[in-house]
Amino acid sequence: MKNRTLLLLFLCFSISANSIFPWGFFAHKRINKYAVFTLPEELIGFYKKNIEYIEEHSVDADKRRYAVKEEAPRHYIDIDYYGEHPFDSMPRKWNDAVDKYSEDTLQAYGILPWHIQIIYKRLVYAFIAKDSDKILKYSADLGHYVADAHVPLHTTLNYDGQFTGQKGIHAFWESRLPELFSENYDYLVGTAQYEYSVLDFAWETVETSHNALDSVFSFDNILSETYEKDKQYSYEKRGTKTINVRSEEYSDAYHNMLSGMVERRMRKSITSIGNLWYSAWVDAGQPILDGMQNSEAPFTEEIKIDHKITKKDARGHQH
Ligand SMILES: [Zn+2]
After folding, report:
1. What spacing in Å lies between the alpha carbon of 112 and ligand 1's midpoint?
2. If you measure from the C-alpha of residue 260 to the centroid of ligand 1, how many angstroms do you get, rounded to a whole number?
3. In angstroms, rounded to a whole number, what is the distance separating the alpha carbons of residues 203 and 210?
4. Residue 11 clears pLDDT 60, i.e. is over it
5. Three-state DSSP state, 242
6. Which helix (H) or strand (E) holds 11?
């Protein structure tokens, strides 16, 4: 199976059409919300006061894909494009990576780890400026990109199982499974810790996600061979549309086989986001947030849909 998969991957990677189905909106909101509870005393007050904003705006980054053309590649990195040992071949630093592969190539196959570093720096500057609007905006956005980096299917050319006959696996893993089962997950993950290097952290996260892909694909393969086709899928109404989804029974079997993977990745997302919010504040010199001016109406980014951006440019669906 593995060889066939690889062969198909290498035959098919002419254009990376990585469709960004995000962690479902549902999971993004939950992850950003619980990250607030990892924060130490000096920070938690401010974040709790604004927890609704942090939760609601966890998905702005995905909405922006339909407003800004450059947005899509910020949500993934198809790291397997870069050969058999991509984490050895790819330089971690942006300038070195551009020198080696060209900026066009990096943009074509995704820039997620570097974008985490950019948003992190913006958050540090927002803390230095004690600009509460920007602290909230960049905290919500950073939460989004960090959570995306925890999703195995955001790290591969075969992002939706399209090369291995497993179409739909992206939304199945990151939307359907959390929607069905995450009510019983444990979201208390402890207190935020300082991260010394955001870029190293981002790369290590992507690598861990990528290493989980083998299970993500192979368990679905094994199960789909044991289940009769008509038991694998069911139809569900979403608004006015009827969509074809993995059946509850099949989802349950797959979720069991993954033995806690989705919960572990959600928990790790929460820890990571808390760590980076906290580290950005430390890097900014630990400004005191209590006396910070807080605008009446929290800053809301106006996201204007650009109708020239096609679904293909935006690379995705909304959930
Ligand atoms: Zn995303």
Report:
1. 9
2. 22
3. 10
4. no
5. strand
6. helix 2-12
Cα of 61 to ligand 1 centre, how many Å? 6
Q: Where do the DSSP E strands lie in the chain?
A: 233-238, 241-246
Q: Kindly state the DSSP code that residue 130 receives in the 8-state scheme.
A: T
Domains annotated for the chain, with CATH where assigned, are: 2-8+19-228+260-314 (1.10.575.10)
Instruction: Decide if pLDDT at 176 tops 60.
Output: yes
Distance 225 CA to ligand 1 centre (A): 31
Gap between the Cα atoms of 114 and 228, Å rounded? 43
Start-end of H helices in 102-193: 103-109, 112-128, 132-149, 169-171, 177-181
Mean pLDDT score across all residues of the chain: 87
The residue written with tokens 């990096």 in the block is 106
How far, in Å, is the centroid of ligand 1 from the Cα of 148?
A: 6
Report pLDDT digits (tens) over 12-35.
Answer: 332 233 334 446 788 999 999 999
Whole-number Å distance, alpha carbon 299 to ligand 1 midpoint, is 21
Helices (H), the chain: 2-12, 25-35, 41-49, 51-56, 60-63, 86-89, 94-101, 103-109, 112-128, 132-149, 169-171, 177-181, 198-211, 213-226, 229-232, 248-257, 261-283, 311-314
290 CA distance to ligand 1 middle (Å):
31
CA-closest candidate to residue 43, choices 297, 286, 299: 286
Q: Which amino acid is at 262?
A: V
What is the whole-number distance in angstroms between the Cα of residue 308 and the centre of ligand 1?
20
Q: What is the amino acid identity at position 118?
A: I
pTM: 0.86
Whose tokens are 């980014």? That residue is: 301
HSE, CB side, 13 Å, CA atoms: give it for residue 164.
29
Q: What is the DSSP string of 154-176?
A: GS-TTTTSTTTT-TTHHHIIIII
